[in-house]
Write a structure and sequence with these properties.
Shape: flat
Number of helices: 2
Number of strands: 6
Length: 118
């Protein structure tokens, strides 16, 4: 069965400074438990804020290292899920359910991509 990576992009300007609410964490935990019991979830985690990250880039043969926050980025990767699904449609359905557990003030997008095997 193919594997899919769901990149969870968030708008850090709309995310609460204190992080997800206890209610959101409960809903997310219940959904993750359901996805895991369905045999779909392989791994998932949230990421620390971009202010704690570092980017390594190479442009025109020159290497650069930039510490966060990355002010030029409106959306940053806030987490990921690695899933094994029968097809892209199933992976998208799980991603839709994940996005829907968030409160309305969150700016959140899940980019679902199939992992190239072999």
């Amino acid at each position: 069965m193919p594997r899919y990576l769901s990149l969870v992009r968030i708008d850090e300007t709309t995310a609460p400074a204190e992080g997800p609410s206890p209610e959101l964490m409960q809903r997310m935990g219940e959904l993750i438990e359901e996805i895991t019991k369905a045999g779909v979830m392989l791994d998932t985690a949230g990421l620390t804020p971009s202010a704690q990250g570092t980017r390594v880039s190479r442009q025109g043969g020159k290497l650069s290292v930039t510490d966060g926050p990355f002010t030029e980025s409106k959306e940053v990767i806030g987490g990921y899920a690695l899933m094994q699904c029968k097809d892209m449609a199933e992976a998208v359905e799980w991603a839709k359910r994940f996005v829907n557990v968030h409160e309305d003030y969150w700016g959140i997008t899940c980019e679902v991509r199939q992992i190239a095997e072999g």
